């Protein structure tokens, strides 16, 4: 890591691991009618989606996402476009991929993709959401709110927290993102964006402790 990056302490790592494990839904993978690769800064989502496609878990894959302040430099043509290109490089056939290039948040990822699929005559009963590992629970809660008539299965790259730290290369940023996603899991149901999720006391205590320690760059006001 660079000199300006914060190395987390052992205690902070343990608290981060609690939150990491909570974000993972632990769903058993099973065939779905369609998969949705949720755009982000993490190209590993596209790689995971490609692997799941090659395992025969779904026939159609939608990548969704435009740009954000955190992805514009890395994916100048938009998250979904770059994810599609990576999946093609990994052997997913072009005819199996649809692109939704406009969504700016998770709610739009779900609703815009639902509309795109409907326009293509695809009305799935089961949807697999492929996301960053720590985004599984928030994407699940969002989809259950906005698309309640489909069964949701969550998937992500099968990485341990240590491996994810290494893949991103910035421990402080990863902890900030895990804390920020947990805040959204807690707060978004109050705003009608997602269904409520039970947050165990030890996870909530870890979250509050990491906020006190300054892992706050991804918090919403």
TrEMBL record:
Domain DUF218 span(s) in chain numbering: 45-149
The organism of origin for this protein = Streptomyces sanglieri
Q: Which domain of life is it from?
A: Bacteria
The identity of this protein, by name, is YdcF family protein
């Amino acid at each position: 890591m660079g000199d300006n990056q914060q190395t987390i302490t052992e205690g902070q790592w343990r608290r981060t691991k609690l939150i990491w494990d909570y974000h993972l839904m632990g769903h058993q993978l099973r065939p779905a009618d369609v998969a949705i690769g949720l755009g982000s800064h993490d190209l590993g989502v596209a790689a995971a989606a490609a692997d799941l496609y090659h395992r025969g878990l779904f026939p159609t894959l939608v990548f969704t996402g435009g740009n954000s302040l955190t992805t514009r430099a890395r994916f100048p043509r938009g998250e979904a476009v770059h994810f599609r290109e990576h999946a093609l490089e990994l052997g997913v056939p072009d005819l199996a991929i649809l692109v939704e290039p406009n969504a700016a948040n998770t709610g739009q990822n779900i609703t815009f993709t639902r509309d795109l699929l409907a326009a293509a005559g695809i009305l799935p009963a089961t949807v697999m959401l492929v996301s960053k590992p720590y985004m599984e629970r928030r994407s699940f809660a969002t989809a259950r709110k906005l698309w309640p008539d489909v069964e949701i299965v969550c998937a992500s790259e099968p990485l341990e927290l240590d491996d994810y730290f290494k893949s991103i290369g910035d421990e402080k940023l990863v902890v900030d993102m895990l804390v920020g996603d947990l805040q959204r899991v807690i707060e978004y149901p109050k705003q009608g964006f997602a269904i409520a999720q039970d947050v165990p006391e030890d996870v909530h205590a870890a979250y509050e402790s990491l906020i006190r320690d300054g892992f706050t760059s991804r918090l919403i006001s």
